[in-house]
Amino acid sequence: MNARLACRFCASPLREIFADLGTTPLANSYVSAERVAKSPEASYPLVARLCTECLLVQVEDVVPPSAIFSDYAYFSSYSAAWVEHARRYAEAMRKRLNLGPQSKVVEIASNDGYLLKHFVAAGIPVVGVEPAANVAAVAVANKVPTEVAFFGRDTAERLAKAGHSADLMAANNVLAHVPDLNDFVAGFKRLLKPQGVATFEFPHLLRLIAQVQFDTIYHEHFSYFSLLTAERVFARHGLRVFDVEELPTHGGSLRLFVGHEGAGQKEVAGLFAVRAAESAAKLNEPASYRGFQARVDKVKDGFLKFLDDAKRQGRQVAAYGAAAKGNTLLNYCGVGTDRIAYVVDRNPHKQGLLLPGSHLPIFGPEKVFETKPNDLVILPWNLADEIAREMAGIRAWNGRFVIAVPEIRFIAGVGGGGAK
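RE: above sequence
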């Protein structure tokens, strides 16, 4: 984004702040203790702004994507719930689009092959496009053909010439990750077959606002979409949304079904329902986006009060999930090891490192059963049910699961806490 802060979609000046979350390191830039001892981490302003013309909420691209995504610490396969979500998607798309050996499925930001492997198992040809070489290598090892590249017009052109025009293109939680939004969407126009379908999943801005999900804002997420704005983006590039599914993932997401203008796909009820919900929330009016900062600060105050009370009472607090959203929460609230002892995560690529900014040490989940903390804060609250089942053994010492967003609450039936 240039010095005058122009909208990455429509180029209008950005004059309104949606949420100012201070200055923080990159949310997925985990660090070693040795590196921290040598030099301070780089930190960048984390300010989400609203374009009052197209209503796209966005943060500045303060660092190039290559600095974020070329060597990435997030591996999708470490979440059982997310892998199951991908399996159900693959099965549904295979039936809905009648996909078979004659078809081609292309996933953008295919990560470690967590989704495409289900199509491979069904005998459907696939190609993944993944910019992080370390993650792509895992996919290739699992027999998922993967191109190491950032996606846009040029990559789409190259893949199309190589015979990879797609019957189905999948883009799960990647639309938000691209700074050059127009180049990215133009790639779908080029690579999608005339009657092909592209699906896009992303957290719904309507839910972000309603549930004060400010911790889903971080530098790696450049844009935050309503259906209203997404439709405008696709229309500019000759694409059209014809169906929408509402999903529980990531605190409330949308799955958009998109085809070429003129392809003839009929608009259906799911599209109309989400349009109506956004209209009722007045997401077409800039005024509806104002006042979010005050609600964010209320969440911060509640979280700090909980931590201060726990410290005063002598309760040890640990956290589960070395997740980007947790890093936004911890860094905005100024939380470090003086309030939370450590964090655990199943991903061995993160274990042994420190969270960016807060410097909480990352251990495997077994650490919880060794130290028996009184409270376990679930940072990736969107996976709370899965994590509570996995870590149910903390009931043995009356440990409590705690969630901070949109307010402090305990998962019902766990420990002595009760729902709140």
